[in-house]
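Recap from last week: sequence in, structure out.
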Amino acid sequence: MIAAWGVRALTALGWCAVLVGVSGVVLRFLDVHNQRLLVLASAAPYLMAAAAVGVLVLGVTRHWVGFGVALTVAAVATLSQAPLYLANGSAPAASGPEVTVMQANIWLGNADPDSLRRQIEDNDVDVVTVNELTPEAVGRLEASGISSVLPHSFLRPGTGGVGTGIWSRYPLSEQIHHEEFLLTALSARITLPDGASAAVYALHPVPPWPVDSAVWAGEMDRIKALLDGIPEDSGPVILSGDFNSTRDHVKYRNLVSGRFRDAADQVGAGIQNTYPADRQPFPPMIAIDHIVTSGARAQSIESVVIAGSDHRGLIATITLGP
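Predicted structure tokens:
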């Protein structure tokens, strides 16, 4: 038997866990703009998991009202996250050639260039988008032999985290620097040997912290406007980048709720945490790097280690279609 004071303490603990779970659910579904709340929304899955603790504790204490509330919150939390682990059967079928795309944030140019090149070679990557590309990093990557694997490039390096680049196995055309963003955003069309092609966008909106969260929100809205302006009959489109947002941010879900789909959602790969990757022995905790497609279908996606970076890379195999 649990003493009366113990029951009260456990009940209080259970209710605290329920409140934490509720905060996670609320942060996921509200389009918050407060900087602190946006940062907390990145941790929504962890906050929502507290509801399961509430179910257990309030069940043990036989606090049935609290148990029912906790169970409801846990159910809502589960329903919000479960689709991430189920392949998206509603995505359009694709029957064309395959391309392997990699997203890599190289942490202010500090990542090990040989590590990035090995990931490209080992995974037969056809296109890599690189964020935080500095002029010095371009030199190191070229010295590592990246151009021997991916001979075509469209690069706009910059100081700090500003620069972005695209390296490709296939020729690039229609190269555009989208100057409405603070951090460099690029797009280009890759053309495969059989004549198939796809537009590739390398994106990097500013983070909601320490930058003013209103600036982040504005950039996410500009990405949405950019995507809405792409004609649906223009062929396959691939977006790749550090979006500085997770699928628990409404602004990001607005990008991938229409004809554009997150590659991880398409294959039911769940949460592919990529950041921070430099806190060993702790693993990355949030998923802010994404690969997104339209007019194409992801077949697989995985995160990979890039030595010397504070992000893991993402590699997706994508079938262009139809």
